[in-house]
Design brief:
single chain, mainly alpha, 5 helices, elongated
Length: 152
């Protein structure tokens, strides 16, 4: 099984989308989404009739909207357990949708928070926040490619 990164955003139907280069995240960061993970999700709804990818991506975005403020609050109050819980939750869900870099950074933060090393985790927490936005943008672009405004 390949873990090749997505260098060009593929539409949910699997066709390359030239509108957005997900190979470069914010400020030239590494690839945002893993093509193999997107392919595996796509296999669960091969015809696209159930709009599974769109629903999974929307659920992930809803989670980000809930978890990122929790992460910032936990960081600001030096709540290592809160940071660890959010990082753990994001680690798993990010890996599922192919956001490998975000998942990796979450794993690092989770480990540091487990050891109550929040000062050391601070730069990685900032990286989570910026990487999450890059992932959100890439997912929106993928969704928009297959489900333009007004479509099902």
């Amino acid at each position: 099984m390949s873990s090749a990164p997505v260098h060009r955003a593929a539409s949910l139907s699997g066709q390359p989308s030239p509108e957005h280069n997900s190979g470069q995240g914010r400020a030239g960061s590494p690839c945002v989404l893993n093509a193999e993970a997107i392919r595996r999700l796509r296999e669960l709804d091969p015809t696209g009739e159930s709009h599974l990818l769109k629903r999974v991506f929307q659920a992930f975005e809803t989670s980000l909207n809930r978890l990122l403020p929790q992460l910032e609050q936990a960081r600001n109050t030096a709540d290592a357990a809160g940071v660890r819980l959010v990082a753990h939750t994001l680690k798993s869900s990010s890996a599922t949708i192919g956001a490998v870099q975000l998942s990796r950074v979450c794993a690092e933060v989770e480990a540091m928070a487990h050891e109550s090393r929040l000062d050391a985790a601070a730069p990685c927490i900032e990286q989570i926040l910026s990487e999450a936005q890059a992932v959100r943008d890439a997912l929106r672009d993928l969704t928009a490619a297959d489900f333009p405004a007004g479509a099902a």
